[in-house]
Amino acid sequence: MSGTGSPPREGVDDAPATAVHNRIRARWPELPAATLRVAQVVLEDLTLVLELPINELAERAGTSPATVTRFCRQIGYSGYVALRMSVATEVGRTSARHPRVADIGRAFGPDDAAEDVRSTLLAGSMRSMQQTAESIDLALLRRLAEAIIRSRHVDLYGVGSSALAAEALAMRLYRIGVSCNVWSEVHAGITSAVVQDEDCVAIGYSHTGRTAETIQMLREAGAAGALTVAVTNDPVSPLAEEAELVVQTSAFEQFLQPDDLAAYYSQVFVGDLLYVLTAQVDFDRASRHLAASALAVSPHRSGRVPAPLASSLPTTPRRKPV
Question: pLDDT grade, residue 40 (50/70/90)?
Fold first, then answer.
């Protein structure tokens, strides 16, 4: 039996969730009952991972050390040692930062004041981007930026708001001379994916990592030889399993759904960072293309609206009513 309820939430005055919390919440619905007990213990007091050996943590959760090891692997770690190292890093960051936390982690009700909705949405979006920034593997992103600059073409796949995030990245890459296309319709996307090769990069966007169309498009691009990349909130999702490189976002507030803004903002933040790193790889080339594109659109930013095309064409005499 897998988890059917919701994971325990942090209180308003608690420290922000760490990457470990985020991984547990992402996998919560799929965790078997035995590993759910381990997840519950870890979420309630993360420091227990640092304080207890694996057998004592297993005893605290009413399970076995082997189940604790399975839990670690189910949330993306190689084992208990890797989990402890991640917890130590995250606890250190949180202790050094201590930011003020607004009213986050609650569902909206019909009687909530507009001021409360505003502050909660703003805090949730800011927090999601902060957690995304902290979880990003910068070495991996630099490697991806170098691959994009060397590539013949970049294909980007996404559905719904994920497609909009992919469009935002494509628009930026195109302005610095990177050939790219965005596909959200699966038939067109697959048609493009199968003609990619080892000189191409394919990037799939999915908050859940479970969007079937995006998974299929990325899989076809990988089979054709392209370097495959997943941008997802779940690093062990089906989309991530299809990718050679995985860039993780973080958006876990209770009121969020995949199409809500905090998830979208996290995806766009990743795209913006990737764009700047890509431009840095060949800064001279990027600067030339940016200057050329700025010059091309400058007449349209003068504030003068061109006359309608029809006004410059010969007029045809109107027929008189019969």
Answer: very high
